[in-house]
Write a structure and sequence with these properties.
With 463 residues, chain A is mostly beta strands. Helix content of chain A is 7%, strand content 30%. In chain A, strand 16 (276-281) and strand 17 (284-285) form a beta hairpin. Classes of the chains: A mainly beta (463), B mainly alpha (93).
Chain lengths: 463, 93
């Protein structure tokens, strides 16, 4: 063992510490590995304009950042460190995840079609790992499938991946070693390859994020990695509403929103206020003749979608997954429905047993959005957030596209709530209204069992 | 003889479980039925703690009697006391 290390060290010294191929790098050779920048905050960092190499228009990663690189003899060198991280999912909740360079998801890697890219991957996890470069055309041995195309990267070792970017597009990276566990723990990142010609598919604002899901029991911090479908935190870039960054857009900007799905179910992503066209998938750019207008686009598991629109309409436009359970935070999926259940007389009895008891759910669940009740530690309310008109009653995969006049070109700061032009907000009708009688139930046919729903009869006495 | 006060210990642990159950009910993570079941369990645990403590004192009295030959403050003869104490210590739980 020692002998091997010495041999390698001597060999590296002799060869000028040039590191080529997917080979383990000894500690002595770390000097040849580029620095691995770390990120301490879950806040969106401004898009990183390329300081060198081919020019491109950088992307904005929601609640994320782009990994800086160094140029080395015509190679763009990046350094990813796979490690346990603490990610704030939203204020009030921090998860113990695995990620890269201090956060989950890892930093976005950006480069340009034709670039020669060298990515160092250091494994600081308690088990081995690899990285698969999802959608990128590369030599088979760089594909990152543990056991199939390479040995896994052992704990404490650094491997190097090298490939040339054959085409531009929207891609991602994630482990392909103990993959189920490592993705359930939050290991993933975006990989954006810009076109060689910066004017090809040019947009003014280019947002990127990944959809990921965790199952973290109330009061706990580490995801249950064996959950397959019943997750309780539906995230964009390991964040949930109201902590997902808004999409801040200058009016009339051309906007692209790109996302990839690394959860275990599909997500129909729906944006209000506009129709849009999908212009790119992880397979490449979609030809004009193959696009059609949409207002929701489904992204299946392991797919990526990018849609574009011209932000002609100012406002606060909701953008969310259209599965209504995915715009909720931790909730009890087995809690029975209490709508219409008559609590009169019972509530007082329960109060004697459980002094802090409060009737909930008998009129629906909107109370939950308005009330702030004490919850288990490190647990977010099922629905939360406040807008200019009241509680937003949302969670999970929900954010707002904020289209505003007069923003600066690179201004991504939250401009606050939209100021609606006078007379353009839905309002209560105060004029004369026709009588609106309740629908009356027709009597059951003979032999048919009557199902009786108790309807609230005016007021809420007894609660 | 030093023994932990089982009533206090058990009801203390119960209270914490009840508290956490209520927090989960607040978050709509658990239903009112689970809240009631937990409350019932707490009542049951407190009752069983009291019964267990009663059993302990009966057994302790029997033990003291066996060692010392007489029950503290006993009026009856040793033979009588043994016959009445034994079934109480063993029975019914």
């Amino acid at each position: 063992m020692d002998n091997n290390m010495n041999n390698r060290r001597n060999f590296l010294r002799a060869s000028g510490a040039a590191l080529l191929g997917a080979a383990a790098v000894s500690r002595a050779a770390q000097g040849a590995v580029p620095e691995a920048p770390m990120q301490a905050t879950p806040d969106m960092q401004p898009p990183l304009s390329p300081p060198n190499g081919r020019p491109y228009n950088p992307v904005a990663t929601l609640n994320g950042w782009t990994l800086p690189w160094r140029m080395n003899n015509g190679w763009k060198e990046f350094h990813l460190v796979a490690e346990p991280v603490r990610r704030q999912i939203a204020p009030g909740m921090t998860a113990h995840l695995w990620g890269y360079n201090g956060q989950s998801p890892g930093p976005t890697i950006e480069c340009v079609e034709g670039d020669k890219v060298r990515i160092f991957v250091t494994n600081k996890l308690p088990e081995h790992t690899t990285i698969h470069w999802h959608g990128i055309l590369l030599p088979n041995g760089m594909d990152g499938v543990g056991g199939l195309t390479q040995p896994q990267i052992p704990v404490g070792k650094t491997f190097v991946y090298e490939f040339e970017m054959k085409k531009s597009g929207t891609f991602m990276y994630h482990p392909h070693a103990d993959e189920m566990v490592q993705m359930a723990m939050g290991m993933m990142g975006l990989f954006i390859v810009h076109p060689k010609n910066p004017n090809f598919m040019r947009v003014d604002r280019d947002f990127v994020f990944l959809l990921n899901a965790f199952d973290i029991s109330p009061g706990a911090a580490t995801p249950r990695v064996n959950t397959m479908l019943d997750f309780n935190l539906w995230c964009w870039n390991s964040r949930v509403f109201p902590a997902i960054d808004p999409f801040v857009v200058r009016k009339n900007d051309r906007v692209r929103i790109r996302f990839g799905n690394l959860t275990m179910t599909n997500h129909p992503v729906h944006m209000h206020g506009y129709d849009f066209e999908v212009t790119c998938t992880d397979g490449g750019w979609v030809p004009k003749s193959a696009r059609w207008p949409e207002v929701s686009v489904d992204v299946a598991v392991g797919q990526m979608r990018a849609f574009e629109f011209t932000a002609s309409e100012a406002g606060d436009w909701a953008i969310h997954c259209h599965k209504s359970h995915h715009t909720m935070n931790a909730m009890g999926h087995n809690v029975p429905t209490m709508i219409g259940v008559d609590h009169r007389g019972v509530a007082e009895k329960i109060l004697k047993l459980v002094p802090d008891y409060m009737v909930m759910g008998e009129r629906g669940m909107a109370d939950m959005g308005e009330m702030e009740m004490p919850l288990p530690d490190n647990t977010l309310p099922m629905m939360t957030g406040r807008g200019p008109f009241g509680p937003l009653e949302m969670g999970g995969m929900f954010s707002v596209v904020k289209v505003r006049d007069g923003l600066a070109r690179n201004d991504y700061k939250d401009p606050g709530w939209f100021k609606h032009p006078e007379g353009t907000v839905a309002r209560e009708w105060t004029g004369a209204a026709p009588a609106t009688p309740r629908a009356t139930a027709s009597p059951p046919a003979s032999g048919e069992r009557e199902v009786r729903a108790r309807k609230p009869a005016g007021g809420h006495s007894g609660h | 003889m030093i023994l932990p006060d089982t009533t206090v210990m058990k009801s203390c642990r119960c209270a914490r479980i009840s508290e956490e159950t209520l927090l989960r009910y607040n978050g709509m993570l658990m239903s009112v039925f689970e809240l009631l079941a937990e409350s019932r369990q707490q009542v049951g645990a407190v009752i069983s703690a009291i019964e267990t403590q009663r059993d302990f004192w009966i057994a302790d009295t029997t033990l003291q009697f066996a060692i010392n030959g007489k029950s503290p403050g006993a009026i009856s003869t040793p033979g009588n006391a043994l016959r009445t104490a034994a079934p109480a210590a063993g029975g019914g739980h």
